[in-house]
Amino acid sequence: MSEFENASRMEFDSRSVLIVDDDENFRTRLGRAFHTRGWEASLAANGQEALAVARETAPDLAIVDLRMAGESGLDVVRQLRALDSTVFILMLTGYGSIATALEAVRGGADHYMSKPVDADQILAAFENLKSQIPVKDIESEVPSLARVEWEHIQRVLTDCGGNISLAAKRLGLHRRSLQRKLSKYPPRV
Q: Does domain 3-130 have CATH number 3.40.50.2300?
């Protein structure tokens, strides 16, 4: 079988995924992982590329990073949802909080996951939601106090539109103290 026939055959047998992330290493690695699992992977570094690719390929699954240089992942999710109401959209972020998860789902995402995440976890979420089975919490532990504090700070910061001075005032913190807390990575669950 020629390479062209093999590629054509894969188009009918495989599903397609669109990976939108400005981190080239992560995007490429995740694309390879999906390809080895039989998926056709399309990659985009920003919202404009993502929309162009989505128009051409009509992916079954779109994986969108929340924070990218330039355009917000939330804007990309809204645009992808407007373009195709049937695509399964998964929002990824390294800065997970309850407020951003709610905002992502309200904006049109079907599911929300915090990085680090791998292709198997994404596929499990995709299959569970596709079959209308709720995704089970992998870890059902009570979050640490540091994690709850981090999520509260993120929610207040989102409510303040990203204004650190206003958020610090509402939290009863000095602005620099809040900036130090924000510069740290979110605590593990």
A: yes
Q: Was domain 145-183 assigned CATH 3.30.450.20?
A: no
- Whether the model pTM is above 0.70: no
**CA dist., res. 94 & res. 97, Å (int):** 10
Angle of helix 145-159 versus helix 98-106 axis, rounded to 10:
50
Question: CB–CB of 116/123 below 8 Å?
Answer: no
pLDDT one-digit tens code per residue, 84-114: 888 889 888 776 667 777 777 888 888 888 8
Question: Please, where in the chain does CATH 3.40.50.2300 lie?
Answer: 3-130
Q: How far apart are CA 51 and CA 75, in angstroms?
A: 11
Residue written as token pair 């990659």: 43
Express each pLDDT in 54-79 by its tens digit.
999 889 899 998 887 777 888 888 88
- CATH 1.10.10.60 positions along the chain are 145-183
161 touches 167 (CB < 8 A): no
Structure tokens at 162: 């990203």
pLDDT digits (tens, 9 = 90+) for 115-152: 778 888 888 888 877 775 444 444 445 667 777 787 78
Q: Is 34 exposed, middle or buried (0-12, 13-18, 19+ CB in 10 A)?
A: buried
